[in-house]
């Protein structure tokens, strides 16, 4: 089994022929053992930064993190991070080591790492170095801390989210002592930067095992996602639902394509239900106005997490309309395409399709409906039918020439577009101008 790229093998061989130890290490080895493609290969070595740069003097090098022993070497235009074996001491801020010192001992370097599955080193000449049983844990599909889990999380509390992320992405179980330490240390997540939290949660949500992580570790995640706290155990008292709000949310999140903004939309789509819950005289639960309330809470959450504006806006727009039914009607779909745009329209179908999978089994038969909506919309786009202002055969300049001015122009274009969609007038220049003039009077 060939684990390393030619560039990584070249770098390791160069270091070893110059008298230094060198291994590929960490996530790249974990992924390759699992048969997954790894995009980055990290190399660790007994050589200190000055020695690394000397070995690779004929290559371009970048002092990426020279204080922490990392030099980036460009081989065939591919960047390889090469880091000196190191020992870390003191984590007074709960995130970063106070002191980093170099060592010639690989075991000491592997000892400082977070999880056993990430503490495996490999080189073609020596094979695997696995002092903490990472290969076995990969085989058993377990996330386990290196050494004492409480110490690992107190050193760097972001590791709590990283562990949950690995469980979601890899589909692994979290070892009991590691899970207990996560819960004991969960409030340390308050000191982690919102940007790092957003990055980890984005990856976690896109994991294949996200449902299990959301349901089983909600007590940890609620520290950084307080919106999910009230969802857990909240009985919806509605025949459409067999799950509480959190379980329903988890099913929907896992059912939508693994794109970050879609998964966030699924995560928050019902987060406002608790705020607007009511029971009718028959004891049936209702959640009037929950899309708008959920959208507002989602917007606040994404602002808190310092999401980029484009992602936040997509999430909010989707949640606002997620509960609005769409008829299998060409004119109605044209209007939706006009108001929402092509991308958001198809995203809405994805969210509604996933939302249906979170309902009681007897309501899972709507796949044909969503297939029909996609087919009609695709045909409208393929036929280049008119459903937006840019599709009209006239524009504002045409109306200016006919005596329209100011707000009249926008109003006239909106009216004639509506008429075209309703098939009251053809999308031809003469007919469109005549319609506008007629309705100007």
Walk me through the structure.
By secondary structure, this protein is of the alpha+beta class. It is built from 21 helices and 13 strands. Among the domains are: 1-133, 2-Layer Sandwich (Beta Polymerase, domain 2); 141-224, Hydrophobic Seed Protein, CATH 1.10.110.30; 389-440. Strands 3-4-5-2-1-8-9 form a 7-stranded mixed beta sheet. Helix 16 crosses helix 17 and helix 20 crosses helix 21. The model has no long low-confidence stretch (mean pLDDT 92).
- Name of the level-1 CATH class of one domain: Alpha Beta
**Number of discrete helical segments:** 21
Which homologous superfamily in CATH is the superfamily of one domain?
A: Beta Polymerase, domain 2
Strand share of the residues? 5-15%
Strand order of the largest sheet: 3-4-5-2-1-8-9
Tell me the radius of gyration.
Answer: 28 Å
Low-confidence stretches: none
Average per-residue pLDDT, rounded, comes to 92
CATH architecture field of one domain: 2-Layer Sandwich
Could you tell me the CATH topology label of one domain: Beta Polymerase, domain 2
Count of extended strands: 13
Overall 3D form: globular
Distance between the termini: 79 Å
Summarize the structure.
The protein is of the alpha+beta class. Among the domains are: 1-133, Beta Polymerase, domain 2, CATH 3.30.460; 141-224, Hydrophobic Seed Protein (Orthogonal Bundle); 389-440.
Task: Reconstruct the topology from this structure.
Blueprint: H1 6-17, E1 22-25, H2 27-33, E2 42-45, H3 49-55, E3 60-65, E4 70-75, E5 78-84, E6 86-89, E7 99-102, H4 106-111, E8 121-123, E9 127-129, H5 134-140, E10 142-143, H6 149-155, H7 158-170, E11 173-174, H8 176-185, H9 194-205, H10 210-216, H11 218-221, H12 245-255, H13 260-268, E12 278-279, E13 285-286, H14 290-304, H15 309-321, H16 330-340, H17 342-357, H18 367-382, H19 396-401, H20 407-421, H21 429-440
Parallel strand pairs: 2-5, 10-11
Antiparallel strand pairs: 1-2, 1-8, 3-4, 4-5, 6-7, 8-9, 12-13
Helix pairs in contact: 6-8, 7-9, 7-10, 10-12, 12-13, 12-17, 13-15, 14-15, 15-17, 16-17, 16-18, 17-18, 20-21
